[in-house]
Amino acid sequence: MLLSVIVPLYNEEEIVEKTFLTLKEELKDIEHELVFVNDGSKDKTREILEKLLADAPNYQLINFSRNFGHQAAFSAGLQHAKGDAVVIIDGDLQDPPSLIHEMLEKWKEGYHVVYAQRQKRRGESLFKRFSAFCFYRIIHSLTNIEIPPDTGDFRLMDRVVVEQLNNLPERSRFLRGLVCWVGFKKIGILYDRAERTAGTSKYPLRKMIRLAIDGITSFSTTPLKLSFMVGLLSTVIALGVFIWSFLEKFFSPETTVPGWTSLMAAIVFFGGIQLISIGILGEYIGRIYDEVKQRPLYIEDKK
Length: 303
Ligand code: UDP
Ligand code: MG
Description:
Layout (H helix, E strand, L loop, with lengths): L2 E7 L6 H11 L5 E7 L6 H9 L6 E4 L6 H11 L4 E4 L10 H10 L4 E9 L4 H17 L8 E8 H9 L7 H8 L3 E8 L11 H15 L2 H30 L8 H34 L10
Parallel strand pairs: 1-2, 1-4, 2-3, 5-7
Antiparallel strand pairs: 4-6, 5-6
Helix pairs in contact: 5-8, 9-10
The structure holds uridine-5'-diphosphate and magnesium ion.
The site of magnesium ion has 5 residues, from loops.
């Protein structure tokens, strides 16, 4: 049995050597390979890794030509990993490597996906915790896939799951969601997330929002269909307004400005019609979107 550990890195020169040594030490009794994905770092990460890997021929280093992002780095790692079990871990040691042993135990018990669930999030700002809390709840209510709350990308996956992920042709990849989508037997283990010991977070607000939008749009077409509901509602209101302005015209003609009734009727009616039409378009665009993603209709576990 071979274990692959994928480590995405972006500008981590302060900590990459420590990560390398910690992982190597932690896994010394297990047959393993480390797959480093250097996501276009602008600092010395690449040089340090090349030096470290010079005498570790069974480790891999994939260098990107520029910064393509965390999710792209995982996808590259998953394509190159050869292991029967594959672990994804952040390169800043915030995810404790010692947890990998526990994950392997669960894997040997027959689980295909073992994800690490954060119990405590040390060193994260109130804003980050609050936004993460909201994000998991929003995605839960908008989509029908169950992403367990407070899980990052730190997880172990069996070969069968990795193969399924590699075969999905879609381009905007929200890995956490896709892993849930492909199914198979899953279990979570709790852990305390440590603080970053060196360097700074490579996830500014801009990237977090991008990730959240990717996550929601790749698993839900609800936002597209929203205007249909709003359109229906406003058509009903339009009818009410129309009746009201009509009655006004007859019962108090002296206070009603000429032309008001017909103007009101036209505005509210066409507003409603337009929103409904956009909603219908949304319904079709949602379907086109589902088709272009080319996800398989179903995935078999065992026949
Ligand atoms: N990372 C990456 N590409 C990016 C941003 C981040 O490969 O564009 C890596 C980063 O080097 C780290 C991991 O993804 O190993 C998690 O990033 P970070 O620790 O900054 O995220 P946080 O823990 O703050 O959510
Ligand atoms: Mg981190």
